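pasting for ref. prot 1 ->
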Amino acid sequence: MNPFKDTDDLKEKMSISVGFQLAILDKGERKLASDTMKTNVAALKYDESIIETENAIRNLETTRKTLNYDVKIKQIDLENAMEDYDRNKELNDQGYITKEELKLSEISLRRAQLASEKVENDILTNELRIMQQYYVDIWGDIN
């Protein structure tokens, strides 16, 4: 029994072919399509960055308004702390409250002053961030 007995007959029926296609007359269409896709991607990235910048500016403007309200609140708190301290100083001078209570009132006044300063510093920081979003260099250099 020979498994290769009909090999000659099989050789005659078998064929192998290799094919390839080369677009010789492409005329740059593939490069044009590739460049168009790159341009579209760049435009989408630009649009996305514009939206992100607008959202950041909108958030900073909201923060600005909030901080302005905070300044007013902290100013009222500071005025109240000053009144409390002045009243407690008079009461201490008259002997109605102790030095420790006066010291606590002084500490409260100082805390109110620091809170007021902190809000003012937060406003300045927020203004710098707004300028940064608008690409304004705070040192005078042009970006």
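and prot 2 ->
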Amino acid sequence: MPNNIFMNFNCKKCQEEYMDGKYGRNKSMAELARLSIGRTKTGLQVWCVRHEINVIDMDLPLDHKLMKMPLQCELCSTPECEHII
């Protein structure tokens, strides 16, 4: 599947630092991004790893395809574990 992204999510602090020249101008914001993107119980969250802040938290309808996928813990082999809240 090709990359169909036409607008990226960016951390506000990263974007401010980029515009101030902290990271130079040799890379784009997309190349500098340190984002973690994952499913929550109510949708998706985009998290800035560099600044440890929320970028966006999107609630999805319960009938959305992504919400119907079973939660799978990265640490355990079963969906029912102590890590999933």
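The chain has a mean pLDDT of 83.
Residues 1-85 form one domain.
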